[in-house]
UniProtKB/TrEMBL annotation:
PANTHER family named among the record's database cross-references: PHOSPHOSERINE PHOSPHATASE
EC number(s) stated in the UniProt entry for this protein: 3.1.3.3
GO molecular function terms listed in the Swiss-Prot or TrEMBL record: L-phosphoserine phosphatase activity; magnesium ion binding
Name listed for the protein in its UniProt record: Phosphoserine phosphatase
Phylogenetic classification of the source organism: Eukaryota, Metazoa, Chordata, Craniata, Vertebrata
Biological pathway: Amino-acid biosynthesis; L-serine biosynthesis; L-serine from 3-phospho-D-glycerate: step 3/3
DNA repair is among the record's keywords: no
Species the sequence originates in: Nyctibius bracteatus (Rufous potoo)
GO biological process, one term: L-serine biosynthetic process
Gene Ontology annotations for the cellular component aspect, listed alphabetically: cytoplasm
Gene that this polypeptide is encoded by: Psph
UniProt keyword annotations, A-Z: Amino-acid biosynthesis, Hydrolase, Magnesium, Metal-binding, Serine biosynthesis
Keyword Magnesium: yes
Obligatory cofactor(s): Mg(2+)
Pfam families: Hydrolase
Amino acid sequence: LRELVSRLHQRGVQVFLVSGGFQSIVEHVALQLNIPTANVFANRLKFYFNGEYAGFDETQPTAESGGKGKVIARLKEQFHFKKVVMIGDGATDMEACPPADCFIGFGGNVIRKQVKEKAKWYITHFDELLKELEE
């Protein structure tokens, strides 16, 4: 993944992480991949002043059904992207297409039957995408 993101950056492609996970974890991954934290869209945890867990920020688009698609629609509008490709391993990733123009199912961590069966392009290793970038 690190090599794929690096090659995309070399080509001037902006990379975003859109996740139903938590911002603090996803931002750590983004930093490892040289993705700006401004390009991370994820759920935010809330805590009380005494440090106790208070829930999550329900105003984040990723906190609601269809939220990943809403994020992609906003990005397309904001940056005037002509094409957006969504790569993911889950049904909520697949549901974000449209507004994403293409969905690539990923089974490198876990193979989800529904994603594997419905994705037009399904990969299990990022080397497959690196080969496509070379062509």
